[in-house]
Sequence to fold (189 residues):
Amino acid sequence: MTSSNERPRDATPDPAPVTVRIASAEDSALLADLGARTFFAAFADENDPEDMAAYMAEAFGPRVQAAELAEPGTTFLVAEVAGTAVGYCRLRRHPVPEAIPGVRRIELARLYAERGWIGRGVGRALMEAALDIARAEGCDVMWLSTWDRNVRGIGFYRRGGFEVVGEQGFLLGTDVQHDLLFARSVADG
Fold:
């Protein structure tokens, strides 16, 4: 039981009225800013700040986003609440690791929400829109990789029907990070 001025630990703010749209070429600066903020919020506590700053400049700069937006087989979805971007995801169709099952596979390469919007339906709205695109394209499997220490993300993906199918490593600055590979059937409800 909690006192009248305490909030229960499992209480979350009410879900927000989220709309999801496909990003256009004009969204590169928005995606760069949103990508850097949301990535930093998700992973900064566990990494060296200098490594994070270098990675974010390399991974999320406006030129990088413009190139990714123009990349064949890439779709960005932007989640908005009252016209303000609060999250986004990137879908990619490209060669995939051997551990990923299926014939027609689509990667959920990023799915990030602003820290204040986590747990308020932004991730769920992006996931549903991504799955709708995958179904429309006849994909049978959606897959993703996430840092093995991303406890919140791992829980979210498991609740969304994803299962671990493998692992891979990557370099972040001077540290070797480990990702878990997840996959799920696109047809699953």
In short: The longest strand covers residues 175-185. Strands lie at 18-22, 74-81, 84-92, 105-113, 141-147, 163-172, 175-185. The longest helix spans residues 28-43. The two ends are 36 Å apart (CA to CA).
